[in-house]
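Suppose a classmate hands you a notebook page containing two proteins, each written out with its sequence and a corresponding row of structure tokens. How would you begin to make sense of it? This section walks through that situation. The first entry is reproduced here exactly as it would appear on such a page.
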Amino acid sequence: MNKEKINNNFLARWISGELSSKELEEFKKTEDYLVYKKINDASERLSISEYDVENEFKKVQKKINSKKQTKIVKLIPTIFYKVAASAIILLGILYFFNKPTTYATSYGEKINITLPDNSIVHLNSNSEVTFDDKSWNKNRIIKLMGEGFFEVEKGSNFIVETSTGTVEVLGTKFTVLSQEDYLEVQCYEGKVRVNSDDKQTILNPTNAYRNVNSNSELWNFTNPNPTWLFGETTFTNTPIKQVIKALEDEFEIKFSNQNIDMTKRFTGSFAHSDINIALKTVFVPMDISFTFKGENSVVLVNSK
């Protein structure tokens, strides 16, 4: 179906259920169908209590009561659905022009993002950032799920929002890792303020912060940059749950961990080049055996 055919009259017929089965099937195959359907669904939920449709309809009936009832019935729906079709197009334009910018990575994928102020975000595997580039000069706010390394240009405050806290900086380099009930921040340059559980923590270069199930931890590190930028993920006394999540995100696998001690912690690293070597590097020192069950599933069992 050509896009030229999807005009106001066509959308009005679609909304009123007047399309033929063939037209409807062709419309469903277009790239635009899901977009218009979402907008139409949203428009149906809009509140329009200010306009009394029933009362206005009665007024129209009184004014044109000399005409045939069939024409009256036809007149109102046609006008209504054409207006609705126009509203859908308008809502679609507003939706696309006001939609925030989102970048996401898949398993084992890493990308670099240049923000409107030339700050850079290095996004780790299976992660996502969202920001509004239209209001960036006033509100430099990024929402993060997963892990990112931020190289921030000097200027106004830069804020990273996560589900477990916020990180505020001013011209610096730092990493943020946000998972369920877990927040980890490492400061590489400048100064970072972490707000989590109604507490503030200031980090200077080589300082690191972790919040695990509302328990805060601090430590120092020596690496000049995040090692995952160069094909290796490093941990310092990290809960095994987060180590497993990092392996899943990097290699697109799932673990069965019911038969291991989840209170264990791991210090060390694994390379991204080979999954078998990575699993041995992590689990052998922890006395945990692993067995592949299918191509993308691994069963973990305590060795002792």
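The notebook's second entry, a different protein, reads as follows.
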Amino acid sequence: MNKQLIFKKRPVGMPDGETWSLESNPIPEPAEGEVLIQHHYISLDPAMRGWLNDRKSYIPPVQIGEVMRAGSIGTVTKSNKHPKFKEGDCLTGWGGVQQYVVSNGENWYKVDPTLAPMTTYIGTLGMPGMTAYFGILEVGKLKEGDIVLVSGAAGAVGSIVGQIAKIKGCRVVGIAGGTDKCRYIKEELGFDGAIDYKSEKLSDALKRECPKGIDVYFDNVGGEILDAALTRLRMHARIVICGAISQYNNKTAVKGPSNYLSLLVNRASMQGMVVMDYAKDYGRAAQEMGMWMMQGKLKSKEDVYEGIENFQETFQRLFTGDKMGKLVLKVIED
């Protein structure tokens, strides 16, 4: 049987036990030109919360009754005359939160699990890594010597953003929640400074770690942290709006920045980014990041939990902060 997580009710605030239901249905058979993929791992990302809202966005919302949308990786167990993929191939794509999926292969990509673990292909070499790469280099217009501030710095995207900025010769300061995460980004990832937003006053900590201001702010959290960062902008600074995880489960209106006039005073820019806009260049980015990984310049960390039945509990770790690096759910049963 194929265990599937079905979307049942649009949540208000944090998703709860009524948001999804776990169902078992027969494993589907691939038609001619299709493949059957057995999922090994599912990617859990903050963007998934936004996909539950019935409002216009960069991608249509998940509809009631559908399998929950998610990035995934697995192996082909059946190929019914597919022109590109055969049994045993390892594929990554958008298979959803389920153990099996049938696909015609569109938007699925073959990867080599002997070169990197499967989990890395939905982390550093997957959507989070692509987001970090294009967000900081293309949108952030990063250049050597920049002072870079990253929020959500111990997370899947922020941790890679900071490392890329270090590779490019920048001073990097990360904002994270808790002593362990701040130690991790400094001692293991090589950030120059760390701010613990849970125990420090942001304004004072930003003055301490960024006394000369900020050239690039990569924002994953929004809210008060974005507002505080705006007060430290240097002339012609760039702000990359990647996410606003602090606001996703709000039951009231999203809190916007009150210090936005700093953009005017400093002739700065603030631009949103969606990784799908750079899909044609994923291969180039993955090749360069893979090289950095082999050289020991870029570290990858996945926080893996097991059991599709534990999806909701694991998903909530995105918002409680009870995880480190890329959050992954193993759904194949040993």
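A careful reader of the second entry would note: Residues 127-139 form the longest helix (13 residues).
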